[in-house]
Amino acid sequence: MPSAPDAAGAAAAPAQPLLSVVIPVRNEAPNIAPLVAEIEAALAGLPHEIVYVDDGSSDATPEALREAARAAPLRHLRHRASCGQSAAVVTGVKAARGAWIATLDGDGQNDPADIPRLLARAQAEMQGKGGPVLVAGHRVMRRDSWVKRRSSRIANRIRARLLGDATPDTGCGLKVFPRALFLDLPHFDHMHRFLPALVLRQGGRVVSEPVNHRPRVRGSSNYGTLDRLAVSIFDLFGVAWLQRRGARPVIEAQSET
């Protein structure tokens, strides 16, 4: 389980940000400063904060986060030992102060410049049709190895057939959603890979938006392909079980005292 969060304050963080950018990382020290600079450029003029969750890094990630927090509205929390990417996302969303959440992978492959467009789509969807919505990034031109692309393609087909989540690229780390929606979802290891299905189970809607995807230029992957494949079949059946057990009561009236 995560240790008590070690949170650090940010430089000139807004009192009430509209958007919290949540980034789970493990051993990503070289990518911290460049990604923070890109986020700040992309979200200039938008009340926001950046929430990093260090998932038990053994490199210089803590030092890189402390340095980045000197010049950006950044807060960082740390798990004493690695608990996995989903646990890091949950920790970050719980600590976030924004009404909206954007998640990003910490390796620099997601492009922060896409965040304002996904946020605008999410806000328009909620205003036009009502109800909670998840906007999921769709990496149309993936910049990954053949093995990653192939395994993801197979996994997406199986997942879509079993769960019916209507999402072409559920593995994309770039997503935008209301914080309150996420907090209502069941939280478990690897749940971040099934956010579309879990949102649909909760009565929300899911839409996909094409996003930029870039090759990794610093460091190496810390949440690997083999790890994903090893647990995917158990996760799929577990989420399918949750879908069948879901019930959403409709409240018709309430009394006032």
Automatic annotation (TrEMBL):
Alphabetical list of SUPFAM superfamilies matching this protein: Nucleotide-diphospho-sugar transferases
Glycosyltransferase 2-like domain residues: 20-182
Record InterPro entries: Glyco_trans_2-like, Glycosyltransferase_2, Nucleotide-diphossugar_trans
Keywords, sorted A to Z: Cell membrane, Glycosyltransferase, Lipopolysaccharide biosynthesis, Membrane, Transferase, Transmembrane, Transmembrane helix
Coiled coil spans: none
Pfam families: Glycos_transf_2
UniProt-recorded name of the protein: Glycosyltransferase family 2 protein
Species annotation: Belnapia mucosa
